[in-house]
Every structure is written in structure tokens, then in C-alpha cells.
Design brief:
This protein is an alpha/beta fold. It is built from five helices and six strands; from the N terminus they run ααββαβααβββ. Strand 5 and strand 6 form a beta hairpin. The radius of gyration is 38 Å and the shape is elongated. Regulator of peptidoglycan synthesis that is essential for the function of penicillin-binding protein 1B (PBP1b).
Amino acid sequence: MKRILFVVMSVFLLAGCPSMLPQQPPVPVEPVTPTEPVEPTAPIEPPIEVVPTPPKITSINWSSAIQPLIREMAVTDDLVAGKLLVVDNIKNNSGGNIQAVNGTNTIIQSVNQISALQTVPYAQMMSARKALGLSGEDSLGLRSAAIGLARYLKADYILFSTVDGKKDNRVINMQLMSVSTGEILWNGRNKVE
């Protein structure tokens, strides 16, 4: 009952409050006399962006650096003719820009021409990398990832290559490993020009 009485009194109290706000006088409007027409300003042009110069890529004679190493690798006693070889992309540790893809292709061509090993076809390698979630262009920096890829491809050997040194003193290092044992079967090193 008290609640009802409270609600009724609240209604009367609120009904008695003035609901109109005091009115303010309107703002006086002053007439403006027209002046001379203003010429439109020229549109502001965005600043011209300068395209950065691409980094200079060093041209390397990959054949002269790689073929002697592949010849040396081909006469290793532990290699069995006809076995399958995975060629990892060349890893560039030289700090400069080199055409590593061309170097990797030269390694594959040299292995196919000079040694008795068979390289994994490019399409098969790319589909295996995709299946394992590995990037197609990256070097397999971790030996475990590379050996996992080689096992997935049922390869017998894997060949790692890195380019070290600075601009005028680059060296390519190659390392052949057995996939089944992880044993390093051969190491080679040659100057890159």
C-alpha cells in the first residue's frame, strides 16, 4: 500500500514541475554584402613518390663454382649409383643479394650431368614441401626439417649448400648427408666468382 501511495505522490509531484524550458531570444542575423568573387584555388597535388632503387644483384658464374664440387662429390666412396638425392635451395649467408635460385638450378643440372645420382623432380619437391607446410623458396635451414622432407620423398641423400663471405670473397660450402643415418658423407668448398 505504501508503494502505491509513493508512486501516486511521485506522479503528482512530477506533473506539477514545469516541463517547458525558458526560451532564449533568437540570435540577430546581420546581412553580409557580397565582395569580389574568389578564384578557386588549384587542387593540391600529392607529392611525387620516388621509387626506391632495387638492390644490385651480383651476377655469379655458378657453373665454375659448382661443377668442380659436384665432380668431387661424385667420386665419394659411400655413394651408390642410381640413388635419389634431394637438393636443398642455396642458403645465402653472404649479406649481399645473389641469384640463389640460379645457383640451385645449376647444382641440380650438374648433379644430373656429372654424378650417377638422380635428383628429385622439381614438381615432386614442391608438392612435398606444400604437404609438409614448408615454403617453396626457403632454404631448409634446420637439418631436421630437411631430413624429414627427404624421408617423405623416400630419398637416400640430401645436399646442403650455403654461400658465405662478403662481396669480393664469397665461398660456396656444400655438404652431402645420408638421410637414413644423418651421417655427413662429403664436404666441399669453392670460391664463388
